[in-house]
Amino acid sequence: TKDLSKTVGMLQNGYAPTAFQGMLLGEGVAQDVEFWNAGLMTLMRGKPSRVENVDPKGVRAWKEGFGCVWKEAGVWGFDKEGEPQLLKPDYFDGVDFGKGFYLPFAKRFTKKLQGVFPKTMIFVEMPPVDFGDMEFPQITKEDIPNAVNAMHWYDGITLLTTTWRSYFTVDFATGKPAFGNKALRKAHQKQLAHVASFGRKKMGNMPTLIGETGIPYNMNNARAYISGDYSAQIEAMDNTISNLESQLLSFTLWNYTADNSHEFGDLWNLEDLSISSPDSEALAIRLAGGHTRRRDDSARGLRGFARPHARKIAGVPLKSEFTMATAEYKLEYVSVNTEPTAPTEIYVPYVHYPGGYRVTSSDGHCTIQKHENYDIVKYAHDIKAHKHRVVVAPTKPIGGDPRRANAPLYLALAITAIAIPLFAYKRR
């Protein structure tokens, strides 16, 4: 940060002291601290919801006989009247975290690990782009052999507010809002394209795998834990995965926590992102009148994450896209004119196709391998063709309710009318 007395970025939640205020609070000195709630108006204004006095009442964070390390380094001190003064506001300004700290550490880590397992892939996970303005370092293949860009990505507004709004988001990196579902998806896709660019431009064209992504299941005041209705969670997860699909990005879904509970979530800071929970299983059984336990009862919003996708592709993908409203999956890829060593494989879960499904292809032929609750469609393309297309669709076409689809648009128009004067206020 260039000034330790300033707030860094828009990604704030709850009490948000500046770095300097954090140092003073650690020394037991009371401070007037910004408090940011996760409300829509706070996010649109880009200003804290209030300022509160936080008083440690002289209780220090340091052991007896030890002082604040930043005070000892001359970053701040007390004046003659005993008032704290920031002496070096730009103390950290000359530091490049990525180049000066992260990369040297990652190189040492890689050398030790690959000294034992030479072919190990190293997941490079710089902080997400939402966290301030840290520069991604230039990483060569000599620096970190077999490197993978594994930066995390989340729909920040949904994660922060634990509320799904299909019509509004804010790009924390730019501070710009987006209204309407189309604009929301465009903003998220732009963020993901930016994340993927680090693998190409900063790491010598290395692959990108989003190391973490997911949604909070306790959204909307955890109403689903009473009603069993996970429709908001399904929509939010569909938004997340659809945007990843649009950029042809691989990802690891966060997370599966075997001992998740509705009360304490994933047992880490009350985060609640697990796709499965024993409490959700108990709720499903209770709501169904105590039926016999079913395999997927513990799943939360199953349709959101159990979706058709290509798990193996005999070529280079051009499109891998699932449209939940119509339950249609499309795969397009190009191949070289040689006999593939194995067929393309598409995972097809039954949850989206209660009435069955059909498969069409541009060329070649398909076979279906049956499993419990899902199929694997194996597609052997015609080697004479260069571009290939496979479509999985319901036997009978389905579609969403157009009234529900248009509802967010009307909400977005109303919010825009409110937002214009708020942004004018913000610029004052």
What does this structure look like?
The chain crosses the membrane at residues 407-425. Keywords: Glycosidase, Hydrolase, Membrane, Transmembrane, Transmembrane helix. One of its GO terms (biological process) is carbohydrate derivative catabolic process. By secondary structure, the protein is of the alpha+beta class. The chain has 3 domains: 14-86, no CATH class; 97-305, no CATH class; 309-394, Immunoglobulin-like. It is 30% helix and 22% strand. The protein contains 12 helices and 19 strands. The protein has helices spanning 19-26, 40-45, 69-72, 97-116, 156-161, 181-201, 219-222, 224-227, 231-246, 278-287, 302-305, 402-427, and strands spanning 14-15, 31-36, 50-54, 76-78, 84-86, 122-124, 147-149, 168-171, 176-179, 209-213, 250-253, 309-312, 316-323, 328-334, 344-349, 357-361, 365-370, 374-380, 387-394. The strands form 7 sheets. Strands 12-15-18-17 form a 4-stranded antiparallel β-sheet, with no helix packed on it. β8 (168-171) and β9 (176-179) form a beta hairpin. α6 (181-201) packs across α9.
Question: Any descriptors?
Answer:
428 residues, alpha+beta, Immunoglobulin-like, four-stranded antiparallel beta sheet, 19 strands, Glycosphingolipid_Hydrolases, hydrolase, membrane, Glyco_hydro_b
Topology:
Blueprint: E1 14-15, H1 19-26, E2 31-36, H2 40-45, E3 50-54, H3 69-72, E4 76-78, E5 84-86, H4 97-116, E6 122-124, E7 147-149, H5 156-161, E8 168-171, E9 176-179, H6 181-201, E10 209-213, H7 219-222, H8 224-227, H9 231-246, E11 250-253, H10 278-287, H11 302-305, E12 309-312, E13 316-323, E14 328-334, E15 344-349, E16 357-361, E17 365-370, E18 374-380, E19 387-394, H12 402-427
Parallel strand pairs: 6-7, 10-11
Antiparallel strand pairs: 1-2, 2-3, 4-5, 8-9, 12-15, 13-14, 14-19, 15-18, 16-19, 17-18
Helix pairs in contact: 6-9
Pfam families: Glyco_hydro_5_C (PF18564)
InterPro entries: GH, GH5_C, Glyco_hydro_b, Glycosphingolipid_Hydrolases
GO molecular function: beta-glucosidase activity
